[in-house]
What we know:
With 344 residues, the protein is of the alpha+beta class. It has 10 helices and 16 strands. Strands 5, 6, 7, 8, 9 and 10 form a 6-stranded mixed β-sheet that branches. Strand 8 and strand 9 form a beta hairpin. The radius of gyration is 23 Å and the shape is flat. Mean pLDDT is 86; it is low at 1-20 and 258-263.
Amino acid sequence: MTERLRWLGFFLLLVLEPVGGATPTGLYEAEVSISNRDSAHETQAMKEALRAVLLKLSSDRNAATGTEIARLLEEVRDYVQHLQYREVVADPLPGLKLWVQFDRKALDKGLRESQLPLWEQDRPSVLIWLIVAEESAPRLIGTGDPAGYIDTLQSRAAARGLPVFLPLLDLEDEIRINIDEGDEGLNERIFAASSRYGADAILLGRLTRLPAGGFQAQWSLSLPGRILAWSAQGERPEPVLEAGIDEVIDRLATPVRSVAPSKAGSLALIVEGVYNLDHYERVQHYLKSLREITSVVVKQIEPERVVFLVVARGGSEAVAEAIAKGDVLQPLTPEEGRYRLVAE
């Protein structure tokens, strides 16, 4: 039996499972400051809370300020399920607060009618590593950082409904990463050390104070089968770090409008250039990483290509758009649903 036949035979025994994910808590609730309890201030606070909820529910970072939500804001009381006032005496933001919980069923209906680009609620969990290089030597930082950089990342992630967590930075992490060895191979060591945490995605940021003033953040997002990189600059570190979280969501989120159920369903993807088991696993992991795809099964195995049957949200157009954002599969035009694996 040839090597090709061996790995093709092995494929027939595989059972592919859907991608894992995490559903954030509190997506339909928010707490905002309010100066007093009269009706006018209460309505305004409800609108502010609704904007905060829309920011978590939408894949668009500007959704809370878009024109599509004007009607929702005017009818905000129709969507409120519970209200609760509380006095906060501790820093950093003491004063009267209003907690608002919105009716999920009613708000979802309003959002569908408004055609807002939503983000599915089963979202990838992201492990965040942050290296800070200022006047001192570069260092990995975690919770309790006096500069508050980690707090900034976590606060923005919570505001956008992105499930994030931090490494332990314990002795095992220190040994495996050994940041004192320098930059060569550092990213690879960090990504390797991340395997113990089981995250869906790994975000590595390096925040640097620029000689001429201001800050720069360089980001690397590791996903199954691909690594995405970008950078951002700003006068202050907080907006630069927040922009990193926003960019992660731009790259991970699946816009779903839930207005064309007929578009959802099964479709076949033909992937050519699959010559061995490593190629197959690369394609498998990549398809499973796409948030548009809820399940993957093998439909047919042929020499040098595999036909996958996937269940997708948004239909073939949404899947094609998602694949086009990456660099793993190259479309074979003009036939829809046909791709070639890009060589590493």
